């Protein structure tokens, strides 16, 4: 790319370098004879800087600039996709016309820019360079993630899946995304997306085995106010939402905040038939639910000095569902029992966090982190039977969590002529589990020490090796449990000469029970069926192995992955009987093994339709060897597949996308779950000079059965079939008004995110 910059300076006052003189400095910026807008110009004198932005004609201006004799001014001009230019102003007299030329664009100093391909695989992660020209103006991060190889992303549910099987956590610039945050990041502000399919415990915690999707945004220097006002209206289910977002950035301070409220009613129908040693049980009910969800979060960043930063985060998310159900149940051909159920379910999470970072030297940073969180869950049901007394169930659980961590990160060091990066983490977690109307409580203390070393051994071989040691103490008035865990992670990659990469991964992770898992109180879901926690649960340990072959050419990608996952003490749902009541509880009862493969393809069909496909099979085996097991073994094959097709037409004014998935049948220790394909579509365009984005989103085109399921349990003398349907099909109209300047509101931080507990 040949770029010709010409920066023309004009100066208003004469004798500008006399004592305490002042001047107006301005000019025009253009490339290849075309004016460039939104170019950042920095005027720097000693340690002081002023900034200006070129307007629609490429013009900029600094007013009343004072300079003393012997002062030297620097003019720094930068724009993403172009080389950054530095010009030294020796004096303020004359025209000072400057013509600059470059045939080598300078972006972030990453190997990905030097590669012909927009896709690069390393031992730790896969990096996908994003070109905003592939998307409609004002397109958001959700559209971008839908096109990343081996990633399926549902924009409405804000959920991602990697390699067809791994549930993904979304990060933005290394910080776990807050609720609804992705909807406020524009495609034009995204530099690249990183996908980590086997995350180390050092950087991401000893969490449940899954994947990390990290959206890296472009860093800018502008100072503006920007934001958006969004709203959604559905054709059915009383579906509507509001979503305002606001960002303020000035000097060393940046503030980003967004809020979302969603109302969505639903009709969920259940039908159960069970046949066991005690006879036949049948139940049918119709459940009408009124629900709403609220998310609010604010993140502020302050640059204390050239080396130090501090950030603060305040986030709340939660939902509340109220339902009324009418149904009937019959046991052993006895009299039909009619019932009415009034229920309430509340789940909320509040988090306050702060991170201080200090650069010790180039490429070496020290972090001090703190976080405090409160998780709360409420299940409240009242049953009114035709021939029985009222029955009331109120089950509540709470977890208060305090975390403190010290981190050291040293990146891109040279040791024995090898490029290395080193990470270490020392973390303390204190959790208090409490339960309403119960004398049971639990205090948990976790000390976590982790180290990681990433090494480029040659141009073909690189590795990531991490080791985490954890000590956990659980205690209450009768319990004092203490155990240690060693959790290794390894990723190694070999680059063949023909752009083919082979990667081997192994990890061991821990998943601990949460407060509701430990709650012994029984909650009746419907007559004949109840749920209960288990205060004696131990954490489960998962071993994961994978071998991936991937080939990338420019933006096209092909991969095949083989994997195996095993757990010897899985926290599984198990059944036990109390008369006609079947209680679904939890136990470390299951031995679980799963082996499979996944194929991923990303390309353009007919040079116009961006296509992203993932599909594969796995074989799952659950075994329960406990004496009280109602079901001892369950196994079978599962197909997992998803697809996203997207394109632009009418001179790139309108975008259309289709996405779908099929995941089933799924197996657990208790049942075989049968599901049907799920399909969405989206059509978007911009109005009023791209200030308003309008989308028409068709959700769950295939109807009730596609968002429901059928569970079948069959083992010896026990048979149960549960059919569920949900009317989530809807047609949504989404409007977003964008105001303010288009600039990146990136805030550098690394909050503590403890994901080792089931939620």
Task: Give me some keywords for this one.
759 residues; mainly beta; Immunoglobulin-like; Ferric Hydroxamate Uptake Protein, Chain A, domain 1; Maltoporin, Chain A; 3 domains; 22-stranded antiparallel beta barrel; eight-stranded mixed β-sheet; disordered N terminus
Tell me what you see in this structure.
This protein is mostly beta strands and 759 residues long. It folds into three domains: 3-102, Immunoglobulins (Immunoglobulin-like); 111-217, TonB-dependent receptor, plug domain (Ferric Hydroxamate Uptake Protein, Chain A, domain 1, Beta Complex), CATH 2.170.130; 225-740, Beta Barrel (Maltoporin, Chain A). It is built from four helices and 45 strands. It has a 22-stranded antiparallel β-barrel. Strands 10, 11, 12, 13, 14, 15, 16 and 17 form an eight-stranded mixed beta sheet that branches. Strands 1, 2, 3, 6 and 9 form a five-stranded antiparallel beta sheet that branches. It is globular and about 95 Å long. The chain starts with a strand and ends in a 19-residue tail after the last strand. 34% of the residues are buried.
Summarize the structure.
The protein is mostly beta strands and 759 residues long. Helices cover 2% and strands 67% of the residues.
SSE map:
Blueprint: E1 3-11, E2 21-31, E3 34-35, E4 40-45, E5 48-53, E6 59-67, E7 73-78, E8 85-89, E9 97-102, H1 111-114, E10 119-121, E11 126-129, H2 141-145, E12 151-154, E13 159-162, E14 166-172, E15 175-176, E16 190-196, H3 201-204, E17 211-217, E18 225-234, E19 240-250, E20 253-276, E21 279-303, E22 308-331, E23 337-361, E24 364-385, E25 391-415, E26 418-435, E27 441-456, E28 461-475, E29 480-495, E30 500-511, H4 515-518, E31 522-526, E32 529-532, E33 540-553, E34 556-578, E35 581-605, E36 609-624, E37 633-649, E38 654-664, E39 666-667, E40 672-674, E41 678-687, E42 692-699, E43 709-715, E44 718-726, E45 730-740
């Amino acid at each position: 790319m040949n770029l010709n910059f010409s920066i023309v300076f004009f100066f208003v006052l004469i004798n500008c370098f006399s004592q305490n003189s002042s001047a107006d400095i301005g000019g025009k910026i253009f490339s290849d004879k075309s004016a460039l807008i939104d170019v950042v110009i920095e005027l720097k004198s000693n340690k002081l800087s002023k900034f200006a932005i070129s307007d629609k004609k490429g013009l900029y201006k600094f007013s009343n600039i004072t300079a003393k004799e012997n002062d030297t001014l620097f003019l720094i001009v930068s724009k993403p996709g172009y080389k950054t230019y530095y010009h030294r102003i020796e004096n303020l007299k004359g025209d000072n016309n400057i013509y600059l030329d470059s045939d080598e664009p300078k972006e972030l100093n990453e190997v990905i820019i030097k590669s012909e391909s927009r896709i690069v695989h390393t031992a730790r992660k896969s990096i996908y360079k994003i070109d905003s020209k592939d998307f409609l103006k004002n397109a958001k991060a959700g559209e971008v993630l839908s096109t990343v190889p081996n990633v399926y992303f549902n924009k409405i549910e804000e959920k991602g899946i990697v390699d067809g099987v791994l549930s993904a956590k979304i990060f933005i610039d290394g910080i776990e995304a807050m609720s609804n945050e992705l909807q406020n990041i524009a495609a034009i502000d995204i530099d690249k997306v990183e996908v980590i399919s086997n995350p180390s415990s050092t950087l991401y915690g000893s969490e449940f085995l899954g994947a990390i999707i990290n959206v890296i945004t472009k860093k800018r220097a502008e100072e503006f106010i920007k934001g958006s006002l969004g709203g959604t209206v559905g054709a059915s289910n009383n579906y509507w939402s509001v979503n305002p977002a606001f960002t303020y950035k000035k000097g060393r301070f940046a503030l980003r905040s967004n809020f979302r409220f969603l109302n969505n009613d639903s009709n969920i129908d259940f039908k159960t038939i069970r046949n066991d040693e005690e006879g036949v049980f049948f139940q049918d009910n119709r459940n009408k639910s009124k629900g709403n969800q609220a998310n609010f979060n604010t993140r502020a960043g302050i640059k204390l000095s050239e080396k130090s930063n501090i950030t603060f985060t305040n986030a709340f998310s939660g939902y509340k569902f109220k339902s009324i159900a009418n149904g009937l149940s019959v046991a052993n051909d006895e009299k039909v029992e009619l019932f009415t159920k009034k229920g309430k379910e509340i789940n909320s999470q509040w988090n306050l966090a702060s991170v201080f970072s200090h650069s010790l030297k180039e490429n070496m940073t020290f972090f001090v982190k703190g976080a405090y969180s409160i998780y709360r869950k409420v299940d409240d049901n009242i049953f009114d039977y035709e021939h029985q007394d009222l029955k009331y169930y109120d089950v509540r659980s709470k977890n208060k969590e305090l975390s403190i961590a010290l981190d050291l990160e040293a990146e891109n060091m040279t040791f024995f002529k090898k490029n290395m990066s080193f990470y270490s983490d020392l973390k303390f977690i204190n959790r208090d589990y409490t339960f309403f109307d119960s004398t049971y409580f639990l205090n948990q203390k976790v000390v976590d020490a982790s180290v990681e070393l990433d090494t480029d051994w040659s141009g073909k071989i690189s590795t990531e090796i991490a080791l985490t040691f954890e000590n956990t103490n659980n205690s209450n008035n009768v319990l004092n449990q203490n155990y240690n865990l060693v959790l290794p992670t390894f990723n190694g990659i070999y680059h063949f000469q023909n752009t083919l990469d082979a990667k081997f991964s192994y990890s061991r992770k821990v998943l601990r029970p949460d407060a509701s898992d430990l709650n012994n109180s029984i909650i009746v879901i419907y007559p004949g069926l109840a749920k209960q926690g288990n205060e004696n649960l131990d954490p489960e340990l998962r071993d994961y192995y994978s071998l991936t072959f991937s080939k990338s050419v420019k933006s096209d990608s092909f991969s095949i992955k083989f994997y195996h996952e095993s757990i010897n003490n899985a926290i599984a749902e198990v059944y036990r009987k109390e008369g006609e009541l079947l209680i679904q509880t939890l136990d470390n009862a299951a031995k679980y093994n799963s082996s499979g493969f996944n194929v991923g393809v990303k390309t353009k069909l007919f040079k116009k339709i961006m296509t992203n496909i993932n599909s594969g099979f796995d074989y799952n085996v659950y075994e329960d060897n406990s004496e009280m097991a109602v079901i001892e073994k369950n196994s079978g094959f599962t197909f997992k597949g998803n697809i996203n097709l997207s394109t632009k037409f009418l001179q790139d004014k309108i975008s259309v996308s289709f996405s779908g998935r099929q995941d089933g049948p799924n197996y657990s220790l208790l049942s075989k779950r049968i599901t049907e394909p799920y399909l969405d579509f989206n059509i978007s365009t911009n109005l009023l000079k791209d200030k308003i984005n309008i989308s028409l989103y068709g959700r769950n085109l295939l109807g009730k059965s596609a968002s429901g399921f059928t569970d079948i349990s069959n083992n010896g003398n026990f048979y149960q079939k549960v059919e569920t349907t949900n009317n989530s099909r809807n047609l949504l109209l989404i409007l977003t008004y964008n105001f303010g300047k288009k600039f990146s509101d990136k805030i550098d931080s690394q909050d503590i995110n403890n994901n080792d507990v089931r939620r």
